[in-house]
């Protein structure tokens, strides 16, 4: 029986609420005997700040480094608006991404047939949608130096963020996108703003050269990031794999979320490089959404993005493909049965709570398991 160490970092707001549903599923999967899951829980974000005055401690970061996978809820909220910048809740997540070198963020956007009417776009535009945004996660303007606010002699302040990419950073994320496309519909759309940014010029050159040298069998197109944002809402089904930088990937994936009906639907996997000795890679799985302060504590959050992130962990970190498929089929079947949390409910439809949605998914998994 395989055994897997998982660090749970529920975080803030709806993070712990959606994590509670995933825990139910993990416990049940563990009880089935196919695999053993050892879970530990730690603090991150505002919860860590309240306890330690830090967005994440060294000890929690070390636990994350040692775990086979991290499941992350969400961080942030108005309660921590005034904490020092270095200790803001989001810094905990950014530290994990950087320290674990999780450079590849896969954000699949799938529109379940039953939800085609929950999207803000017309049914025919989103029905059957299945795209993946491959977001570079440890470089770009998120981490480039200098990053500062300085006071000038004239009393004005000057804020600087720096967008930096190197050849090898672009190449390794490009490779992830091409490899993924080969297992899908064999098309990659690379996105930057080479018309304005030097990093965009290099991005375009490196992706083009990599394609020519190693992936000529994959269809490659380039789209400027602003135009791609427009195309995502005009005709999203033209895409298969989109590869882009850290900031564009952040923004484009929130747009993609609405194609699926709700931000509460989008899972993600943040992956490091494969260790050639063990074949393993560090990984953190998290919903694309945040801590949703507007609905936190009300039992209204949709747990499906978190549940889908668990499915990605089962697939990518633990090789438990059947269990991963089972989670995803259960989500699909429960949606087909008409059950909806508030964010995906039709006008006037009764919405179920976070716990009711989680229970229904678990029950459906139990039914599928026979
Ligand atoms: P958000 O994603 O938290 O919420 C945006 C909107 O989507 C809200 O109306 C919210 O109610 C809704 N929503 C999000 N997830 C939902 C779910 N599972 N079910 C139902 N509705 C859902 O974005 P925001 O309000 O801009 O940010 C709030 C805080 O979260 C900020 O502090 C931000 O920095 C942080 N944040 C954290 C993460 C993360 O931890 N990975 C991601 C994004 C934002
Ligand atoms: C995301 C979030 C994060 C980001 C924040 C919370 C740091 O928006 O994962 O999409 O900007 O990357
Ligand atoms: Mn985001």
From TrEMBL:
Domain Isopropylmalate dehydrogenase-like, residue spans: 5-361
Q: What is this enzyme's catalytic activity, as reactions?
A: (2R,3S)-3-isopropylmalate + NAD(+) = 4-methyl-2-oxopentanoate + CO2 + NADH
Task: Summarize where substrate binds, as residue positions.
Answer: 97, 107, 135, 226
Binding-site residues, NAD(+): 77-90, 290-302
Q: EC number(s) in its UniProt entry?
A: 1.1.1.85
Q: How is the cofactor bound?
A: Binds 1 Mg(2+) or Mn(2+) ion per subunit.
Site residues (Important for catalysis), renumbered to this chain: 142, 193
So where does Mg(2+) get bound? 226, 250, 254
Q: Where in the cell is it found?
A: Cytoplasm
GO-annotated biological processes: L-leucine biosynthetic process
What GO terms fall under cellular component here?
cytosol
> Pathway it belongs to?
Amino-acid biosynthesis; L-leucine biosynthesis; L-leucine from 3-methyl-2-oxobutanoate: step 3/4
Q: By its UniProt entry, which InterPro entries does this protein fall under?
A: IsoCit/isopropylmalate_DH_CS, IsoPropMal-DH-like_dom, Isopropylmalate_DH
Assembly behavior: Homodimer.
As for family, the record states: Belongs to the isocitrate and isopropylmalate dehydrogenases family. LeuB type 1 subfamily.
For this protein, the record's PANTHER family field holds:
3-ISOPROPYLMALATE DEHYDROGENASE (PTHR42979:SF1)
Supply the name of the protein. 3-isopropylmalate dehydrogenase
Q: Say which species the protein is native to.
A: Alsobacter metallidurans
Gene symbol here is leuB2
